[in-house]
Write a structure and sequence with these properties.
The protein is an alpha/beta fold. The chain is about 40% helix and about 20% strand. Bound molecules: 4'-phosphopantetheine (PNS).
Amino acid sequence: MDIQKKRGFCIYPGSFDPVTNGHINLIERSLHIFDKVIVAVANNPDKNSLFSVNERKEMIEIALEKNERVIVDSFEGLLVDYAKKIGIHTVLRGMRAASDFEYEFEMTFMNRKLDRNMETIFMMTGLRWFFVHSSGIKAAVKAGADVTGLVPDIVFKKLAEKVKM
Ligand code: PNS
């Protein structure tokens, strides 16, 4: 059975709380490989996210200037169920350092266990963004540090608003 209904498409899932320039760089580079990328923002009610799903989606859309080859969506529950629903079984993930490997390895095999049609493709994060991750950005901003250049302008603005609250 051909389960992959949309070839050339991939799902790029993540928390994106908030999206960083590392994520944006990966999405832009992935468009050299894939025709369409579905950026899937995970809605995990158990996680104490700084931004709501809608805020996270909106920041990604603004940062990408509404690129028509990128669809920004959200999902709740298992990634494999979302993949099945939209008929795309290729997952894209960014890998920064070796320290990411174990987490990604476990997630890949868990997804394959849950649905053997799932395939995960990894791209290395751009060297400039090697040390950039959402939790580090949030910690830095809360401590009063300047994260200019590490996140899209819209994220920089929204982070400043959150910190003031
Ligand atoms: O940006 P993150 O936090 O590293 O993304 C992790 C994410 C959201 C892709 C992952 O936690 C996920 O797929 N969550 C959905 C629940 C699920 O499918 N779990 C089983 C695989 S671990």
